[in-house]
Structure formats: C-alpha cells, structure tokens
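yo

u said u wanted the structure for the complex thing, so here. seqs first:
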Amino acid sequence: MTDPALLRNFSIIAHIDHGKSTLADRLLERTGALSPREFKDQFLDSMELERERGITIKARAVRLNYTAADRRTYVFNLIDTPGHVDFAYEVSRSLAACEGALLVVDASQGVEAQTVANAYLAIDQGLELVPLINKIDLPGADIERTRREIEEIIGLNAQEAILISAKLGIGVDDVLEAIVKRIPPPRAGATTSARALIFDSWYDSYSGAIGLVRVFDGELRVGMRVLLKASGKTGELARLSYFTPHEEAAEVLSPGEVGSVAAGIRNLADMRVGDTITSAEHPASEPLFSFKELKPMVFAGLYPIDANQYEALREAIDKLRLNDASLVCEPETSQALGFGFRAGFLGLLHMDIVQQRLEREFGQSLIITAPTVRYRVRTRDGQTLVIDNPARMPEAGNIDAIEEPYILATMHVPGDFLGAVIGLCEARRGVQRELRFVSPKRAILVYELPLGEVALDFYDRLKSVSQGYASLDYEFLDFRANPLVKLDMKLNGETVDALSAIAHRDKAYERGRALCEKMRDLIPRQMFEVVIQAAIGSKVIARESVKPMRKNVTAKCYGGDITRKRKLLERQKEGKRRMKQLGRVEVPQEAFLALLRVGD
Amino acid sequence: MAFSLYVHIPYCLSKCPYCDFNSYAAAVFPEQDYTRALIAELRRRAQEPPWAGERIATIFFGGGTPSLFAACSIGEVIEACENLFGIEAGAKITLEANPGTIDLRKLLGLRRAGVNRISFGAQSFKDETLKFLGRIHDAEQTRRSVATALDVGFEHLNVDLIFAVPGQTFDDLVRDIDEAAALNPDHISCYNLTFEEGTAFYAALKRGRIRPLGQRAESLMYALARKRLAEYGYAMYEISNYARPGGQCRHNLAYWRAQSFLGVGAGAHSYARRGPGGRRWWNERAPTTYIKRALNDGIAESGGESVDDRTAAGEFVFLNLRLNEGFARADFEHRFGRSFDGFFGAVPARLFADGLLMSEHGRVRLSERGLELADAVAAEFV
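structre next:
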C-alpha cells in the first residue's frame, strides 16, 4: 500500500510528433524504470505496436518510483490515452483516472488540434494541467508565441510553463518536480466499500478479460470477490499487477493506486471501460461514474472478396471480437456480394482499424461496403423497422416515414474558423443550438446534426476546415422523420445492392451524380463499356460510363523472353484478383467506399 | 526435329532511349572473343539433348546491332552451325542491321557468309522522328542501304517501323509506310512504341517530359497501319508483323508457336520443349561475364525455370493468339491432352461471347477487337 500523499496519477497530452513518446521515455529513464539496454526504442510506442498486433501484455499505465528533492520517494502512474473522437469515451475514462496531466506543446509548431481537444476534456474533468514547451533546442522554436497560444487557445496560464527538450533531456528534472508539486495527490476515499474505475480492458487467452483500474475507495485484494456494477458480473480477483513497465504481481491495490485485475471473467463485453468494480460482499451503493454503454454508430457490410473465404472471415471476426467488445457483427447476405456480415462500429476510425486488423493480422481480403447509420422506418401497415443496411429498405410505396438518428455535437472552435465550421454544419443539415465564446478567441458551438451526415466524413472535414483546431464530441439525441430516399447504384443495368445508400431527398441528385463520377474514376477500363447509373426507384438520376479499353497489347515479344512476358501478364491478372466480379464487371475494393470519397 | 537458333550480339554504337533490350553502347568491343564465346556455347549445346543431332531450321542474328560485326565473324558462327549441327536447305538466316552501320562491302560479305535475309531497323523515314528516337542514321541512309541490299541479291528483307511516337501525326505514319513499301521488302514490322521500365523514355514519361499519344490515337494508328500495309500487299500475320506471301519470319514463328529454340549470346533465352511443357533458361546478360563463362566451359546460364503443363498451356495460348491464324484446337488437344475449352473452364466461353475470341474451321483466334486487347485476353489464360 502506498501513502496516497505520495501518489501522483497523470497522463501526457500532446499532438502527434510533439514529443509525447520521447518525454515518456525520459521519465522512464530518469526514474530508472528501464535500463539503458532496454532503451532501444520508445517504450510506450513499442507497447502500442504490440497492442495493435493483439499481443496481450501491454502497459497503458506505467508505475514509476521517483525520489524528489524533498527526499521522499513518490509513486507516479503514467497513464496513456488514445486520441480520436471514436474513442472519446475511453479517453475521458483514462483522464478520470488521473489528477493531472502534462500538456506538451512543440515550440516550433505551436498548439495543435489534438492537444486542444484532449486539453478541453482534461479541463472539463477538473484535472490540473502542467504546460510544457518542448523542442526548445530546435532552430525554429518560438517560445513566446507558443506561450501566447497556450494562453489564448487553451486558456491556461503559460508563464510557468516548463521549457524542455525531451530529446536532449533538458528540463526533465523540472518536470519530475512539477509532477510532485503541481499535480495533486489522490483525494482520500469517500467510503470504505471498494470502488475502482475500469479505464481500459483487453482479452488475454490465459486469464480472460483483464481490466486496467484506478482504485478510488477501499482496496482490491487478491482472493476478494468482486462485482462489476454495470455488467452485474461477479468474480474472484485471481491476479493483481502493475507495470514498471514490466509486469509485477501485487497483493493489494489501495486508494489512488493503478493496476490490472483478472477476475475470472471470460467475456470482454463484461469488463467494459467505464464500469466500476466493487466488493461483491459489501457492494458500494453507487458507481463511481455513470456508465455509458458504447453503442455502434455506423454499420457496414464485410464480405470476403473470394466467396470461398467466408468461413475464414467468420473465424477471423470471432477472434477479433475477443479483443474488441465494441465491434458488433451479424451474418447477412447480399445479392451482389454473397455471404458476409453486417458490422457495427463506434465510428469510421474504428471501422478502419477493424479492416486493417482483419487484413493484416488475419490475412483476409475484404470488401467493406459504404458505412451507414441505423434508420427507423414506419411502414404503411403500422410496423416499425430498424434498418442498418440500405438494401433492406422496404419498397417506397410501403413507407410511411423514415426517421434518422440525430446527435448533439459539441465543438470547440477557435474564432478564426468559426465561419467555416458553421458553414460545414449548415451544409450537413445541422440545427444550431448554442454558440458561446469562452474566451475572446475560442467558441463552443453546439449543433443538432443528423448522424448520417456526421458518420461519413464530418470529422475529417471539420479538421480540414479548421486546419485541425476544432474538436468534436457528440452524444445521441433522438430519431427524427425526414424526407429520405433510397439511392440505388446500377452497373450495366444491374442494381448492386451493396452500393445502395440513403440520402436526403434534396441532396439525392447531387450525391447520385457525385457517386457516379467517383465510381467512374475508381472502376478501371474493362474490355467492354461499363455504364454506371444512380437511381431513385425506377428513375435514373445520374449516369456515367467507363469507356472500354482501347488498346492493351504488347507490341513486341522480347526476342524469346517469354518468361518476362508471362510475368507481366500474371501481374495484370493479379491486379484483377483483388477486384470483385459483379456480373461481368470487375469492381475494385475502393469503389465500394466511393461514398466516403465524395467530397462536399 | 530441326530447331531455330537465335544469336545475340549485344553491342551498339549508342543506346536508343526507348530500347530495353540487352544492349550496350560501346565504341570498341571484343568482337573476336565474343565470336569465340558464341562458338564455344554452340559446341557445348551440340553435345546435349535436345539439340544434339538436330539440324538448324532458321538462324536469327539479333541485338544490339549485329551489323557492327565484320561479315567474317558472322561467317564463322554460321560455319560453326553448319559443322556442329547442319543447316537445313533453304533455311532463312536473318541479320538485324542498323542502316547507319552497313554498306555495299559488308552486305556482299554477309551474303557470302550465308546470310540471306536482312532486317533493317528503319523505324521512320522522317529525320525529326529518327532524331527523337535517338537513331544514328537518317532516312536517306535507310533508303540507300535497303536498295543496296536488294541490288546485292538479298531476296528477303524486313523493314522495322515504330508508330505512336510522341509528336507523330497520322500523315507521318502513312508516309513512313509508303516509303517502306516503296523499298519493296517482303516483310514489314510495325511496332507501337512502348515505354518500358528502365529506359530513358520511361524516366522522361514519369517526369512528365514526354507524353504518349494515348489509347485512342494509338488504336486508330494501328488500324490505319493495318489497312495501308494491306493495300501494298502486306498481310498482317502477327500483331506487329506484316508480310507478302512467303515473306513471313519463320524464326519468330517458332516463338509464337511455342516451339523449341536455342538462344546463344549474352542474355539470350532458350526453350527446350519436353512433352507439353519443358525448360527455359537464360544467359548472363553482361557481355564480359558471358564471354568468360562461355569460353570456360561453353555454359553461361544465369537462370532458368521448368515450365509445367498448366503454365505451358497458358503460354501456348497467349503466344499463338498473337498470330492472325491463331491455333488449331486439335493442336492444343494433341499437346495438352484436353480440349481448349475444357482446360480453361469458363474463360473461353466468356471471351467468345464478348466477341474477343473467334472460332472457325477448327481454329481459335483473336477477333479484330481482340487483337487490340491481346494482353487483356492473354491475361485470362496465365
């Protein structure tokens, strides 16, 4: 047990490349957590890589011992955070496990977007932020400008910002002292009944679900029976450990401490981020925080390019889900693509990660269809259907109303970009709810937006119109009836169900045209003409065509070098193998996601 | 069975910017050593199956620029062939010549040495185009060289043309064909310029310094060339080759019919058919390494592969389809033990239905449209 007064729990907030990993390395090095020999690489980063590869041991929280100028030895828990709106909830739980954060800003780059978004989150949670101005050794370093930006954009007093060069190790000792002096120790527990927050979890094939927790009240002890408040599951604490960054076993985790728990819970879905662990014998009456169940926001079809690979894909998805409880998946079939799955994701980044992992770790060749949101359809005969695949939309004649999900989006926007961001929200059929200046240069903008307009590329567009400075957080609001129509795509006259989309009536023409154009650019020339059409019901609203190949022949046959000729032909054929054959038309993977590439 | 022999001479006075053949620009080159190396390789092959005891049906001196070699060097090689294998009566013996490196004396010498067919790398009759292509000769030299070859008594002549050169117009192409036909050769090759990796043109293309004419123009030029050449009596018998009756290049036909051929010289390729498939190999590309190894023990192979039945069937189809006459279904079945349609599953039916392949009188060949998409069609069979 560590005296809470000697504990400091913090994370590092930084824009990518601003030196978060290098600083973490320096902290590990100065506190002797890693021997120089282990210092081949940025340690936290290599852990992230392992995590990406699905290796179970990981250190999203590292425990460091530091003997300060006051000669007392402190225990630091450095907690890592992911950094994307899809995982905003995970970030917020990680921050909730901390009392403070180091805010790292690159002196040559100034304050950047990701920093701003996470800094606001940290401020909202009442964390003590310690600004650090990094890379002061670079010729382009502008310390005064960086100070000004920290004050104006984030609203922190930057006069006491610590000047460092993580790379050269300058100022690192000041940082360690500031952690002791400026970041408060954990508050004393409010009850004696144990309460710990799960802020990360993963699956271990040996121990089952593992939770990374921060103890707030009482204590966790090996052998103790515990209850997970939100999931209602109970288990016995089989193992407690912390990472130095090497895993060390612990008997007890006491208030303020951070560590991992294995409680014999098999299913990762029962050990969710945000849940509270308490004693099963003397359960706390209230959870630490109200638990927010993560619901999938966007849905897309996952299909093997080669129909024979369906079983292999199913196995890969099953394995992946062991480690990703937020991925929802059900079998479905498509006329065009055959057997596959309908999967639900937290957002587009999550979808991207799932696709990458299925392809890289499990060697699957996939078609992923354009993501869509979940619509509610009221039919003439009084039924209410939930539609997460546009192809399943009932006949137009049988639809009374289509309702689409709305979200409440909260954006922090620097004043300079306010106009552009408002323009974007309006173009996405948004309804402004609030516009408030929190400082002369920073506004909070709140919009009601149809999720379908946000799910696709809104975040990327928001980042691009604000040069990356605007941040976004959103929550589900309600379903609203709107004049929505189903947009079908046809290739050489055949409707391809996997390409159907739902669009607002006023935007359907424009979208159909843009989709046709995009598809035309993505589908390579074939031996015959490919006609691409967008249609609403039986009415064709846009048409493009991919002209047939004119000429595809090698003039000369290389004086008997037939091997080379054959290899060239094999390469040509290999290119075709990565495409999906729809009827006679060969369609590349990207074409199924054309919807995402249709700009504003 | 008699076989075709290819002899590679890798030296050139300068490297053309479009050329990706195994050739080296050199002002001086070890002609004697290289000739001895060729003969050493031939001597070794003459003792090995499948070449031992077989006669030679055709010889083709390609390059590089074989016309850089003295007639007596070429004569030595031909003489060695006669002594080691025997050359069939009436065999065509071709030598590629750069019009800028040949004169009356050399042509007479070559004729005496046994060469009976000259293939001229004319490429164009427009000096501007020749300059762009990096050629060392002008149109007048081509006219003179070809006329001299006829005077000397070469009954078989080929003139090479290149079309779809950046900047070339349809009129330019017609004029080139007219000029070539006016020289009265019995064979004309007309190649679409391609930008091959590793060439100066490829690099220039990547940097955006030159622009190809585009698929549409190339396709139209190809049709124009076919029509114009036919008017002069040159029938297309292969994608890029045209001949008057009796003028077809028998040597190249051996490649396209997927028959055995022996290649000697730096970087030369060989194919020894065995059953449906066989073995392929290729020599050291660098002339000095080639010479050293060939002089040592007559072998200068740097790589090879065995061609299994499946691969051989694919090659048989894509090579034969380059020929206007295609191939006989019976020949395919005889060689591979199964019918063409049976061997390739759904592929032939689809290509017939799409009008890319045609079937008539028991033969399979490319349609007009299939000719232009020969590679896309061929890719279906590999």
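The first strand of chain A starts at residue 7 and ends at 14. Chain A touches chain B through 26 residues (CB under 8 Å).
cya
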